[in-house]
Amino acid sequence: MRKHLFFTVLLFLVFAGLASAQITEQELKVQKEKLQQQNSSLKKEISELNKDLQRNQNESKTSLLYVQNLTQKISAQTKLVNGLSKEKRFIEDEIYLIQLEINKLSRELGELRKEYRDILVKAYKNKSVENKLLFVLSSTSLTQAYRRIKYLEKYSDYQMGKAEEILAKTKDIEKEKAAREKAKQEKETVLAQQSIVVDELENEKIAKQNVIEEFKKNAGTISNLIAEKQREQKALNTEINRIIEEEIRLARIKAENDKKAWDKAARTNTIASFQEYLNEWPNGDYSNAARNSIKNLEADNKGWQTARSNHTKAAYQTYLKSFPQGQFASTARLEITKFERVEEEERLAREKAEREAAEANKPVEEVVVKEVEKPKPVENPKPDPAPQKTFDVKTNTAELSSEFASNRGRLPWPVSRGQIVVGFGPGKHPVLNIDTNNDGVDIATNKGVNARAVFDGEVSSIISIPGGNRTVLVKHGTYYTLYGNLSFVSVKKGDKIKRGQDIGRIYTDELGNTTLNFQVRNGADKQNPELWLSKN
């Protein structure tokens, strides 16, 4: 009983496995194609890294960029080896499933051939026309004879159908065999590629170890360079803070004087006072508000002159509707009051005349009302005191700052090509166990590359620290970008520069490293440049 149960379970698992194989065959092909695409991308990445490695190795054996690219290549190669192993397994599974299909088709073909052989034997025994004719003539009725004729026709079609089915099944088997051979060739190709990549991977690991040994040989020199760089950066940072703080102080004084001039113009509230402000501060924080105020006052004056020339109640009411807080609003209301007083006197005179005529019991005669003299307009009235207004105006500096800030994570890189080899803030040297601290990021690039502006701005200062290289500080409103370690610069203080414009040549040190120190600051606050630069 137990033995019977065991075989029952075993058969169930076998058939379940076959059903699973049939379900996942298409999925297997999709996964294999996806894996092949990933492996293709890795091969392309390795090819690009090979070009960079060749270029960097020619420049320096202790280049941080070379070490970083070598590490990336080893990582990509390791992923590729694993990917090729997976691809090989997928192909083996595919071959297995194809073989299962071939076996199934072969079994079905055997059954078909057996059936067809039996049909042919039976047909041979009854091949004579006389037998078929006797078979029909021996019918007991016309209906039975008709059915036997139809049976013979269908039997003939059945024979032909079985022959065609055998041919189709044979073609299916040949097709599956061809697919199996193709899969086997793919497997051989993958195995060959895997062998090559594994050998290259071992060579690259040895190369990386050699580079690390080279770094260790030059550890003293590199440590001294890092220490010197830290001293230079500290001195540079002190100078940058001084420059930025001074600019902030001057900007604060400028803003205060600007505000005083604006308050004076706003209190006077005349075209002349606002024009005087603009003459002194054409690009001031309130220059737009001053221009708008001049336009409003001119429109107010024009509206008042129209109302005054017409000198009617309706004209003054139209002025008040357009300029309820205008310069001449109180005068317009006074003129309207005069017109309303005259209208009231005329109404009272008419009512009095009507009452007197009614008392005398006689027809009411037309009452001639003496025309009241039309009020004269006030000559050149002084404008009403202007109400205090609160202007929600952004300064030019704020607009520039907002424009720069809106590009966070989208700024172009300050070099045509390169990689960040030392990140922002405290950290460790990528190879040697040396503490570092960076106010920006160090971007390694190739010898002879120029630094370029990441955004429109103005050259705020060019700093040269004794014993160090040049640094260019560019202002973008309240934001600053800094380009350090330049052997020479191609701009000067006060220059207006555009995004992408060359700033200067990046210095290449005695070990062959060409590295730009790039910083971003909001005032004196240091920012992480990686968060500002585009990911592409």
UniProtKB/TrEMBL annotation:
Residues 18-122, 166-246 form a coiled coil. Residues 1-21 form the signal peptide. GO terms for molecular function: hydrolase activity. This is Murein DD-endopeptidase MepM/ murein hydrolase activator NlpD. Residues 437-529 form the M23ase beta-sheet core domain. Residues 350-390 are annotated as: Disordered. Keywords: Coiled coil, Hydrolase, Signal. It comes from the Bacteria. The lineage of its organism: Bacteria, Pseudomonadati, Bacteroidota, Flavobacteriia, Flavobacteriales. CDD domains: M23_peptidase (cd12797).
